[in-house]
Batch of 3 targets.
Target 1
Amino acid sequence: MPDFFRRKPTFNRENADNDGPVVPDGLWVKCAKCKDLVYSKDFERWFRVCPKCDHHARLTAKQRVEYLLDSGSFEEWDRGIVTSDPLNFSANGDRYSDKLRQTAEKSGQRESLITGKGRIRGYDAVIAATEFGFLGASMGSAFGEKFVRAVEQAIELRLPFISVSNSGGARMHESTFSLMQMAKTTAALSRLGEHKLPHISILTDPCYGGVTASYAMVADIIMAEPGAMIGFAGPRVIEQITRQKLPDGFQTAEFLLEHGMIDKVCRRSELAEALSLLLLHYTDATMGRRQPDYVYVSNGLGEDGS
Amino acid sequence: MPDFFRRKPTFNRENADNDGPVVPDGLWVKCAKCKDLVYSKDFERWFRVCPKCDHHARLTAKQRVEYLLDSGSFEEWDRGIVTSDPLNFSANGDRYSDKLRQTAEKSGQRESLITGKGRIRGYDAVIAATEFGFLGASMGSAFGEKFVRAVEQAIELRLPFISVSNSGGARMHESTFSLMQMAKTTAALSRLGEHKLPHISILTDPCYGGVTASYAMVADIIMAEPGAMIGFAGPRVIEQITRQKLPDGFQTAEFLLEHGMIDKVCRRSELAEALSLLLLHYTDATMGRRQPDYVYVSNGLGEDGS
Amino acid sequence: MTATTPAWERVQLARKPERPHSLDYINALISGFVELHGDRRFGDDPAVVTGIGAFNGRTVMVLGHQKGSNTRENLDRNFGMPGPDGYRKALRIFKHAEKFDFPIICFIDTPGADPGLGSEERGQATAIAENLLALASLRVPSVGVVIGEGGSGGALAISVTDRLLMLENSVYAVASPEACAAILWKDSSAAPEAAEALKLTAQDLLEFEIIDEIVPELEPAHEAMDQTIQRTGDVIERHLAEIEAIASDQGIDNLLEVRYQKYRNIGAWVDKQEEMLGELPTPMTASGNPGS
Amino acid sequence: MTATTPAWERVQLARKPERPHSLDYINALISGFVELHGDRRFGDDPAVVTGIGAFNGRTVMVLGHQKGSNTRENLDRNFGMPGPDGYRKALRIFKHAEKFDFPIICFIDTPGADPGLGSEERGQATAIAENLLALASLRVPSVGVVIGEGGSGGALAISVTDRLLMLENSVYAVASPEACAAILWKDSSAAPEAAEALKLTAQDLLEFEIIDEIVPELEPAHEAMDQTIQRTGDVIERHLAEIEAIASDQGIDNLLEVRYQKYRNIGAWVDKQEEMLGELPTPMTASGNPGS
Ligand SMILES: [Zn+2]
Ligand SMILES: [Zn+2]
């Protein structure tokens, strides 16, 4: 076994799969959008959101979990589940199995989804978060199996289910196996719903293809980070096929809100607050317990979570 | 009691509430759309559809029942139900109760809906048909009560329910009572659905307001006659409020088909055939009996029912 | 206000821009309100607000027509006139509530459904009708409150609830007095007379047993906003508790039966079958189907 | 055809315009077919045909992607690529079938879902996802048949059925060979190699246990249309009778459980947890939430 996990990824490393800042030195980071320099510690403190232009840089699954969950509360599940390359796939001499090994080494993850249990402001929840650094968070067999097991655990434990997703599209190397994970993950959510447990979906940049056309868009509540690009087909494909110029802001989170596809655009800094408020409402009602020591604001979500 | 029913309405009478042909003499009728003269007997034989321009003239409820049902099969229900003028309504000195009496005398009906049981090509069904000549087939208390009783009878008898509607809008003289008939009729259909009995809705010219915004648009199958005007708000209201020019063909049956609101535009001459085919499918499956002696065409509905 | 206040005065009070609107009630009565957006089909209609929150310690879904308090806000909110997308957003929330057994509270305040070209194209009638159908059999308790204007089918589409309440100075009718006057008086300046004739006040509708209770306005709501909203909350709570008790003690099917009978029994008619028999011609039958 | 026919040849056969399309199957196999139209929301998508009729004496709802047999027809039918309105028409029919306990037969034949601007605006992803959700728990038996191209999510959206069949010369994959070649070979002319690598033939998918049976084509379907369609009807009948028997003998909940397990078990993965234990660093935990 290669030693995937020895090299602990650091937040500030350069990462070709990442639209985050390029680090000119250890102290300053350069915003990928406005190109301004931001003091590195500020950048981390603001959850890798540029304080100047509000650009939400992509997160690794690990960062996401760290930012979202209460400190030390995450218990990861099914870390050993990996794909078995059912097609024995190779493209132009490049073997899928080799690619998986290289990707694992580079990303520090063995698959494009991590799952587990954690707490958000005191509320227990099952969480599944995608790893874009692992083959663009494409949905392969391992992704699907981990997702479904997590949903089944949520049913078993009677916990709400939160997914945080981005994805570049299909895992072509697994062809129809990849496609069928759309049906598999969604079927599991159908069961979750029958048990009256909520699924809250958080869409992050970029979110396309099989993920949006399956579990991520049939949640009870859908939120997206500002500026996140979200759609079925990618903008280049659409331009190429339709030969139409795409309008400004097409497929952004704000565009989806305007077209009725999501419930809320939520800044990263407010996400834990927003989720905890929702978990409060669902937990009280469907999980048969109250957490009256939790004091919520009476006039709803403020513009500034903390 | 005034003698509402002595004067049997004849088909060719002039009728201000009717867009049908004006009769220059007893033998010929003049089409309201193309203005051509049509031999009166032909016109009747073609269900009051102009053979030259296919204009579907409005029918009285009685004509509708005669054209649609197997000869002699209709059994009318609840003929005695009339409104009781709950608001003691009068407008500008004109009393609603007087208007009801005048309308009844003119139309030969006591309310804007007739209901009953009949057969269509051998298939039993409950039928409700509106009478446009009675205050523009507006939905008042008596309409609602007759409709709901008919639906309840359909449940009792385990029969499919067919509504044939047109309507000019609300019965203002009954105000909120009129409005609430929308809830009342639709609630009854909800029960019909729970009993797995189909509701097939036929929309005819013109169909607006409370009728379209309630029972007529939540049917399992919706068909409309060619050229029928169908909508929520009337075209004049829309033009007046939005100051927009309405596009050609706006709110026609064909427009609704294109916009996904109805299943089929069906010529009057094909209606009985189309209905009987549907009744066959639903009767077989949900009413637990087959009528194998009925031979249907294997390639579906032809363009010419007979 | 007294029970003899002219109907037309009620209409004007009900329409006052300063009057509290749905979000005023929601923000005051619903703790931790999270607004939810969109119909998942086409758009997010600002004339309907909806979301999840806690009402007196229980999770509920709330929704309402949303008017603006000034012209600018009203333009943004389309004067509280929803399109089909607004009704489909409401429908989504109704189904969401049903899935999780959350009760529903609806605030009704609209001149009517939007009469625009786009609304017709996307099935305004269909959208309203589907809501009526859904509400009739929705397996959770529901309370509706007319807080301002209850305008026609556009109001009805979110008001087919287990209990229907009205603020003292709200109105509810099948058409606006102006429209009614234009049609039946041939003169829209006869709106005050039409308002009277339409019997659209809370007092009228309570007498007709179409609504269940009037929330009194000791002063008009816009002059005593907080007290009016709190009083409304108290009346909602009492009714919600009653229907929740029916649902939990007798089962939800019983609540649905009560709801069905409530709407099934609205109507003012008589059966004159008996006295007609003597004077009728032969009963009507189909005398021949040329097609068969 | 033999099992060793190259994948690329299958792709070309599957795409042949002369090949029988959904309406050819429907018109031959469904008696008294009545086509139903519209999504009741926005439009009537001609790339999806659907309706009610009798299949071997029982009432069924049928639907399928509809390609044209020539360029003009294909332009009318958008080459069989549905927009969200097409998927919502299908969803309406699924719910209709469920309401009346009618089994569902789906014919799958699409290059994929429409990738246009309007489709994105109206929620193509949402529409597909909602169909997957609905099909997973639909309380009636269903059979799907890939008759030509099974293209990606656009095919999947109507193929999550109790039994999934494929014509011998049909294909089913997560992406077209051309798209796959463009991305992984950086050269779309490598489509034949990509077709081979994608394992998209009926034979491959039967071996993977993703489909339940292959309908043999003794000659390619377009050269023996009637026989192929009749043979397809026979195979559908056999599967439909089997799942109807499960539903009636063991109850519909059992059929749903079988369906769930069918899709739940698709996937090729191993659990290497054991062998990893020794070499892993400390298990990953959240090391600090700056916001809490
Ligand atoms: Zn920046
Ligand atoms: Zn003519």
Note: Chain D touches chain A through 72 residues (CB under 8 Å).
Target 2
Amino acid sequence: MSDMADQDPVFDLRAADAASHLVREAPTEEQRAHMRLCEALIFAAQEPLGEEEMAKRLPQTADLPKILAYLKAEYFGRGVNLVRVGKKWFFRTAPDLAWALQREQIEPKKLSRAAMETLAIIAYHQPATRAEIEDIRGVALSKGTMDVLLETGWVRLRGRRKSPGRPVTYGTTEKFLLHFGLEQISDLPGLDDLKAAGLFDGRLPKGFGVPQPRDDAGLMDDEEPLGDEPLTDAFASDLPEEG
Amino acid sequence: MSDMADQDPVFDLRAADAASHLVREAPTEEQRAHMRLCEALIFAAQEPLGEEEMAKRLPQTADLPKILAYLKAEYFGRGVNLVRVGKKWFFRTAPDLAWALQREQIEPKKLSRAAMETLAIIAYHQPATRAEIEDIRGVALSKGTMDVLLETGWVRLRGRRKSPGRPVTYGTTEKFLLHFGLEQISDLPGLDDLKAAGLFDGRLPKGFGVPQPRDDAGLMDDEEPLGDEPLTDAFASDLPEEG
Amino acid sequence: MDGGQVDSFEDRREEEAFRVDLDGYEGPLDLLLELARRQKVDLARISVLALAEQYLKFVEEARRVRLELAADYLVMAAWLAYLKSRLLLPAPPKAAEPDAASLAASLAHRLQRLQKIRAAAELLGERPHMGRDIFPRGNPEGVDVVNAPVYQASLYDLLSAYARQRQKQALSNVSLLKTRTVWSLAEAREALERILGMALEWTALDDYLIQWVANPAQARTVRASTFSATLELVKEGRIDLRQDHTFGPLWLRRKGEPPPPAIAAE
């Protein structure tokens, strides 16, 4: 757990520095009032709360990024932390307390190795097509694996690749970030290592640079919308399915 | 909401005193660790968390009442408060922020036929008393109808008619003009226009007319200010109420 | 693919003895990666030749014990056999095909890539999971939704509502002063008696009605009342009434004249 804590943005040293810096310069009375409001809003929300949503409830003059930074600093090192995912904020328990909070009765279903690898390929390589996933894993993807991933809500159909056969492209969702405690997709663990190894340039000509995984809502240049074609044959493959 | 806050233990003065006292003497490192744990436990719990439950997760030596008191003090005056009910604890957004936690959902609504007809009569015949409206419609006005019209913001209480019983007079508002796209109330079409539009057929009795509507802000000669008499009996009528 | 299989995979790795067992391998690349790991060197410096030999030996062994091999294992074997021969032979002077070294490099690259993504999957899996290690608020209050009704109505709705009720009221007020729209039996009888003197010959009831009923809208009530009145008069023996066929016109005449032969015959 302890080395994991290092990877976690909550335990990020830069964040800690920023936090201690902010704590040193105390918020004004007005900022305190705004912090209270944001605190209550994020606390009450059922889902991570968007910054726009908060901005709507605050006076126009309020400096939302600063208020959230103060609030985050206030919860730094506490049992409950304020965490950002994309442009949304939520409270959650500190990762190092997992041991005390784990509930015996609920054992979340573990993903198979095939599903976990497929998820990793989609996450690190997105937008990724089925053929790209199969190329990396060297084995055909069973329909069941992709179904499981779509069911978790961590993977979504992004669009179609502008290439022969117009294959469906897959990407990760906000729920994926939320589940794995990532602020943004570039926080994926080991991403720098993978990028440095130049292992994801398979489909790109040399010198093109290593693609950065992207989970933006917008489509990339080589993607187009899903359209209304049936998706059933998105899983068609002439590779034999994995056992 | 405000009287709720008064009853609330968070706003209890003795609690506040205790809190400030506790804040003065800082918790030890060990107590801090226990506070973090309790904080996370209470936060993640789906129901108010019992003290026994917390005690189970803490070392036997831990001084739970003191830890919870510290934690409560830490959340005192914040956007989120730690609240105790019996021997159970939970976090709750500060009651004074309830106003900010409400979200207005716009719900398109259609006026009932009775309300629409009443509105039309008020528009054309204003200032109109309840009895006048009933006389024109030939049916008693239910209290609900007038409430709905006042809720729309299209109808207002203008004043009182200088006549026995001093009945309240109703008129339309600027919002009414805005909603119906009228520059002024006199832009409402007259009898000939209504006939031309096919809204009246030919068979009208002699002497049938449509008034020239007026919504002057000032009171008319036969009106006087509302005064501070109760409005409750403004709806008394001996006509049977409409269905 | 569950935890159990992952364990058996781990066990297998520790087990140094070469065993022909394809269970748990996810295709030829997976098997190659496992074989490469046994070389215990950095994947970037792996001996592809040695790897190819090991793979081919594995496949031969498998066929010897008549193990069913999936087609892709055989395709990979064929490709590796080709690669092996290319690696062993000196490179042809003008190769149209990619040289053996770059084919080998590309295989090593694929293996590295698979290994890295496996490591990444593991790192991802080790992160604290929401709902397992980290928890959101257990019972968020949520945001109260206050319904703010926005009333919608068009000017047309307003005007038609106005016209509708004004017209309705105007007409019902006036109709009270008008003659009744229903013809009573007494009215019908009185009218009939007054004209009875004219009906010495057979006369159609409708003729009277048309004569008496100014407003066509009243035809129905007048016909009904008049018919009832004629029946009363027949009963009193003051008129004769006949109808030649179903739904045909009703004929009536004052009593006392001799009946026509056709009627007498009936």
Note: Strands of chain A lie at 49-50, 80-85, 88-93, 128-129, 155-161, 168-172, 223-224.
Target 3
Amino acid sequence: MASDAELRLRERLSKLKSINLLGGARLSGELERLQKQLDRITAEPTEDDIWRSVELARHQDRPYTLDYVERLFDDWVELHGDRGRGDDAAIISGLGRFQGRTVVVVGHQKGRDVKERAKRNFGMAYPEGYRKAMRVMKLADRFRFPLLTLVDTPGAYPGVAAEQHGQGGAIAASQATMLRLGIPIVSVVIGEGGSGGAIAIAVGDRVLMSENAIYSVISPEGCAAILWRDASEAKKAAAAFKPDAAHCLELGVIDGIVPEPPGGAHTDHDEAARLLGGAVQEALDELEALPVDELTRRRRARFRALGVFA
Amino acid sequence: MASDAELRLRERLSKLKSINLLGGARLSGELERLQKQLDRITAEPTEDDIWRSVELARHQDRPYTLDYVERLFDDWVELHGDRGRGDDAAIISGLGRFQGRTVVVVGHQKGRDVKERAKRNFGMAYPEGYRKAMRVMKLADRFRFPLLTLVDTPGAYPGVAAEQHGQGGAIAASQATMLRLGIPIVSVVIGEGGSGGAIAIAVGDRVLMSENAIYSVISPEGCAAILWRDASEAKKAAAAFKPDAAHCLELGVIDGIVPEPPGGAHTDHDEAARLLGGAVQEALDELEALPVDELTRRRRARFRALGVFA
Amino acid sequence: MAEPRIDVQVETPDAAPKDEKQHPNTCPACHSHYRNDELEAALWVCAQCGHHFPMRARSRIASLADDGSFAEEAAELRSDDPLDFFDLRPYGERLAEAEVNTGLGEAIVIGRAAVDGAPCELAVMDFAFMGGSMGSAVGEKFARACESAAEHGLPLISVSASGGARMQEGILALMQLPKTIVAVADLHDAGSPYVSVLAHPTTGGVLASFASLGDVLVAEPGALMSFAGPRVVQQTTREKLPDDFGRAEANLRFGHVDAIVPRPELKPYLARLLRLFANGK
Amino acid sequence: MAEPRIDVQVETPDAAPKDEKQHPNTCPACHSHYRNDELEAALWVCAQCGHHFPMRARSRIASLADDGSFAEEAAELRSDDPLDFFDLRPYGERLAEAEVNTGLGEAIVIGRAAVDGAPCELAVMDFAFMGGSMGSAVGEKFARACESAAEHGLPLISVSASGGARMQEGILALMQLPKTIVAVADLHDAGSPYVSVLAHPTTGGVLASFASLGDVLVAEPGALMSFAGPRVVQQTTREKLPDDFGRAEANLRFGHVDAIVPRPELKPYLARLLRLFANGK
Ligand SMILES: [Zn+2]
Ligand SMILES: [Zn+2]
């Protein structure tokens, strides 16, 4: 009962085996990781499975960026401000020590209570947030600190001021900035990977997704409103555009799935952080072995190759 | 009757003769230019001479950046906006063809009538203006177009919004940006070179001043108000801090003086433009012969060396 | 959680030419009516009031490229349907219908051309093909335009007109943002300049990727260029939007574009830029 | 033309500690009064309300550097008087008086030190020396601090407190802006990090040069950090200024600094940063 997902993953595996990558060790690491992912997929997710991911990805007790940071980093120093207009609390940035190395973190941040949600604008950033992100990414680049981005946003904020401040241009510029960084970049979609607001900080060398995260070009509700002319058809829309981790892996959009504690990450933040830390550590170990030129060459090749056409 | 100015210039000349610069041709060009300047200086400028410069530098009929651009450039295309917040009309930027080569221009722009003065904020830029300048400078750098900056401002605008938008940081960043450009930069103070607002775009490989321009750390009125506690002592203040071209040359702050038509640049814009064009052409010819590394190394060395201390 | 979730605008009414009930050749601003051939001759600009009608990709290319100079590339490329996407109708059916209605294989046409004698690469979008939405094929063709430009040492001129990412391709549509941005980065590394012309509308994923990354950004008068469309912004914020919300004129004021160039002046303007950039490295 | 011409603030009353009539050891916020030794022991922070009094360079160094670790550099460097500047009094006389009153040769002290065991270079300004204004000697000493840091592969920490450029040195004072910026660029190229601490006040030419170019910018609570001083802004614009105009808190809100760190936490904060940066290239 091999699913489509399994078949496509097997196809990627066999392709990878035939590609002459830089180092044998790297290659076998890559294969091993894919093999592990393959083992996790037993069947195509159902409409209910997908909707459960949507609900878990948005769960109010789900660990957010700072929940992971406080569990995984020592000597954390948060950096504020875009050096031009403001400090957008929907995106946090800073540096800290992760497993002995200094790592720069950029991540969306939702709020847990009503007050913090308002302050963090539900994790929906203004251009100021992306400009802060870019500024801190360039700091990482200057000192060759690896970059970890944690993606968790319903989307970039759709407001008048956000447009006046250049939302589209900021999202484009942030991606362009990431492509030019001479440092390893690990991006993890830890909750909602909502559209342009998500990809703005997700141009990594390794892109991972938490098991119950979603990653999509539009929200299920938005898609349903436009295509079904009925926002309540969100579940049907989600099933159609498949924002769950298994499908994203199958499509080659992500490189791996970070397991969550049974029941979902919200049930055990410590364990969720341990599992995320392990995946990030593994990815960084692999990436740090690559020369900078090769790293940025592969990063570009990775994103250049995405898409299916005839 | 050798003045101090003359003596110091002679000293610089003799020092230059003993320095082993990159190419003999370049060196002799440099000497020749200094010699010419020396010939122009016959005596130390008096208090009246200096005040005349202040008045001419601010003369309402003096040619402004766009007056020079329209006379010296073909195929001019103005570029607008800082890609973030606004388009500051106090600074214009663009590209055009100058003597066969494409040159990027960044310059302060004052207004001639009441309406344009308001629009251009009297040539006093907000941080947006300096951010536009930086953006366009980086464009020049990407395509190896030489950069010409024309300085003509009473100073950066001192307002609440300007501070909120980061005036100090923008002026610092603009200078830092100029130091890193791998292209020849010619900066000319064509009118008022007022303080931080001026130096923000004046970090050139060659810094020139129009004959009747002024270049100063503070306005005569501002200096008088603080040190003499009486703004009407401006003439005395100007004589004390010596913002005229001859003194700036003597102090090594500028590399040459661009002659103006008799009576001042306002009497004949065409002739003023012809004289400026000649000086810019000469400077560019010299700078374009240098390798990029040498260019930026010398630019840093030039500004690193400024100052007199014991 | 009640927050809005839409931020890429696809096929929404406010991204499309307004007031669908009106004949498309009737000027929405002054209600003058024109024949197709009149508008084609006038570059689809209203002779009465200067309103810029949407311009189809082939007309746009004819208006910019010197006669006979356009050599199309990747014309055979078509969208696939990786998700077997089915909403009220299958994606495959929408694609087939769009091809029949527009005579185009996709929402973008690319190829080499000369503009006033200056050789360049053109990448021109067509809003009539599924709202100019960007799926894998559009992203691929734009990337190939960059690569062709780099290979031949040519500048790239793009003309965008798009409602955003094509949601029928799900997450792969979103991935066309970084994909096209990679292509622009490679193009820049090859030393080629890139001029992006933003026509009405350029929104969502296209504004948030290549269209914003030109060395020079030129908008057409009145063009909507916003990341989120006016309808979504209004629904989300419940604010009254400014009259020129997201329009080219507002974007110029807020510093996001270099110039607004009326269509009749666009070719000479681009030719001037090409001459200037030809002097670069 | 009636436009204002001042944009670098030097020795203006609003840059100095306010209300000169009050004893300097009386807290301007809550009016508590302290002896020198009390304030010194409390890092010149009001025990009642947390107000940060101005801190002299030597006290600052003692508060940051590990005991006995500070090795001063370029202590012999002095200002010259290149313009023979004479206002109501000669510049030379002002300099001599400042040296006598402060026990410092100039408005900045530089040297190598250790902070919680981490070696670094310190450059600390002193507002008591002619309002912390920057002339050739201050610029030179800051540049030498950068060069010493680069030479020894050390991070640089600066603490600024300055009314701006020193107008008695005319245009040469303005040239200290690009000069110190060159030094920071060279420092960065050498791979050293630079943390800039902005104390009250950091205005004019110092804010518009090195103080704004730290990899990390840290402000002290309540510190004024504006390019133009409040008085000039008020005179120019005739606007009512916001209560926290130009203060650290406003600057944090507007995105210009990374953090506001109360003085008692500054040493551990800097030590943490030094540990983190020690892991870089
Ligand atoms: Zn009309
Ligand atoms: Zn107190």
Note: Chain D touches chain A at residues 188, 191, 193, 215-216, 252-259, 269, 272-273, 275-277, 279-281 (CB under 8 Å).
